[in-house]
Amino acid sequence: MIIFLTLCFVAFAYGLVKLKLLPDNIYVRLSPIAFMIALFLFLFVPLQWGAPAGPAVVVRGAVAIVPNVAGQVVEVAIRANEPVKKGEVLFRIDPTQYQAKVDQLAAQLKLAELREQQFTQLEARDAGSRFRVEEAIANAASLRAQLTDAKWQLESTTVRAPSDGFATNVALRPGARVATVPLAATMPFFDTSETLVGAQIHQIHVRYVKAGQKADVTFKQLPGEVFAASVEAVLPAIAQGQIAVSGFAAANTRLSAFPFVVRLKLDDAKVAETLKAGSYGQAAIYTSSMPTGHVIRRVMIWMQAWMNFIVPF
C-alpha cells in the first residue's frame, strides 16, 4: 500500500512538473522518498494498532463420540459428512444383554416390593420385626436404583448426535465392537450450531482491541468478498502462559511474543454456515484509535480479497 500511494504521488508530482507548476530540481526528485517515510511514520505505524490485522481461521467445536456402554455395533445410521440434527441416531449397539439386565432387575424389584408389603403387614399385626421391614425397604430402593441405571445403559445403546452437525471419517461398520474408553473414540463429530472465527493479532497491536468492535474478514474459500464481523472477545490466555501440572521443576524455555487470539463472529449467519472448518483468511479490526486510518485498512482488506483469486496460499 505504501508503494502504491508513493507511485500515485510520483505520478501527481510528474504531472505538476510537466505543467511547469513545480520546478524540476533535486528537492522535487527526492520528495517521493520523504513522502514514503512520512507515510510509514505517521500513517502506517499507528495503523497497526488503530486497525490491526492478522491471519484468521474458521473454527467449530468438535466432539469425539465415545459410547457410554460397550458392545457390538448392529447399525450405523449416518453417512460421513452428511448433516444431522441434534438427537438423531448415529449408531446402535446390540441391546440384548442390557435388555436382559433390565428385565432381571424389574422382576427382582417386583418381588422386593411384594416382600416389603408383606413384612409391613406382618409388623402391623405384631407378627414381624421392624428390622425386616427396613431391610425390605432398603432392598427395594437399591433395586430401583439399579433398574434406573440399567435402563440408562439400555437407552445408551442408541448413540445420538449431541448437537446439530456432521460426523466425518466414519469408518465404523456393523459388527465392530466399541468400548467406553475415551482413547477409543468411534468418530469425530463437528458442531455446526455455531461458527467462530479466530484471528491472530500481534501482542503489540492488540492493546486497543475490545469486545463489540467492528471487523472485516476475507477468506481464501470465497475470494473477492469481504464479510462484516464483530469482536466477541480477546482470549485471556495462550499456551505460553499456561502452567502445566508436573513432577519437575520449572524448565527454561525459549520465550517469544506469540500473537494473541481474538474471537470474531460473522454478522451474516448464512455465510457462516457455508464456511468449512479450517477455512483460512485475513481479518481487520477497527478500534477506537486512529479512526482516520480505517479507510486505508478497508482498502487493504479489499485488495487482499481480490488477491485471493491469484494467490492460493
Largest beta sheet: strand ordering: 1-9-12-11-10-13
What's the SSE pattern?
HHEEEEHHEEEEEEEEHEH
Largest sheet: 6 strands, antiparallel, barrel
Oligomer: single chain
Name of the CATH class of the largest domain: Mainly Beta
Distance between the termini: 20 Å
Commentary on this structure:
This protein has 313 residues and is of the alpha+beta class. The protein folds into 3 domains: 1-48; 51-60 and 194-238 and 256-313, Efflux pump adaptor protein, beta barrel domain (Elongation Factor Tu (Ef-tu), domain 3), CATH 2.40.30; 63-190, OB fold (Dihydrolipoamide Acetyltransferase, E2P). The chain is 37% helix and 24% strand. It has 6 helices and 13 strands. The protein has a 6-stranded antiparallel β-barrel with strand order 1-9-12-11-10-13. The chain has a 4-stranded antiparallel β-sheet with strand order 5-4-3-7, with no helix packed on it. Strands 2-8-6 form a 3-stranded antiparallel β-sheet, with no helix packed on it.
Brief overview, please?
It is built from six helices and 13 strands. With 313 residues, it is an alpha+beta fold.
Lay out the secondary structure:
Elements: H1 2-18, H2 26-50, E1 53-59, E2 62-65, E3 71-76, E4 89-93, H3 96-124, H4 130-155, E5 158-160, E6 165-167, E7 177-178, E8 187-191, E9 196-201, E10 214-219, E11 222-234, E12 260-266, H5 269-274, E13 280-286, H6 294-307
Antiparallel strand pairs: 1-9, 1-13, 2-8, 3-4, 3-7, 4-5, 6-8, 9-12, 10-11, 10-13, 11-12
